[in-house]
């Protein structure tokens, strides 16, 4: 990917081009849970790029990993996250009067 604006749809397409195995749905789900665990650890340790000077072992890295597996999981279920976002936002706006 280059420096252009990244939409949820383009992110999904990009990941689909390199990592897409519809028969491995549980694998993607387990990886997502694993990455959420890693995110939990770096949040507990408050590890940030601005302090370490690199992305490895930071909240930034683990947020990327979680986003990656959310997109990969959506792909193997043939789910459009942008559509989900719009549909759920409508519900939230009505529910929370936003
Ligand atoms: Mg990770």
From TrEMBL:
Domain NTP pyrophosphohydrolase MazG-like: 29-86
Cited SUPFAM superfamilies: all-alpha NTP pyrophosphatases
Pfam families for the chain: MazG
Protein name listed in UniProt: NTP pyrophosphohydrolase MazG-like domain-containing protein
Lineage start: Bacteria, Bacillati, Bacillota, Bacilli, Bacillales
């Amino acid at each position: 990917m280059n420096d252009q604006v990244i939409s949820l749809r383009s992110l999904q397409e990009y990941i689909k081009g390199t990592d897409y195995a519809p028969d491995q749905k549980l694998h993607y789900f387990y990886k997502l849970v694993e990455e959420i665990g890693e995110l939990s650890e770096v949040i507990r340790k408050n590890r940030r790029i601005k302090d370490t000077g690199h992305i490895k072992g930071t909240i930034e890295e683990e947020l990327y990993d979680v986003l990656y597996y959310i997109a990969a999981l959506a792909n193997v279920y043939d789910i459009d996250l942008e559509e989900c976002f719009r549909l759920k936002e409508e519900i939230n706006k009505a529910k929370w009067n936003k």
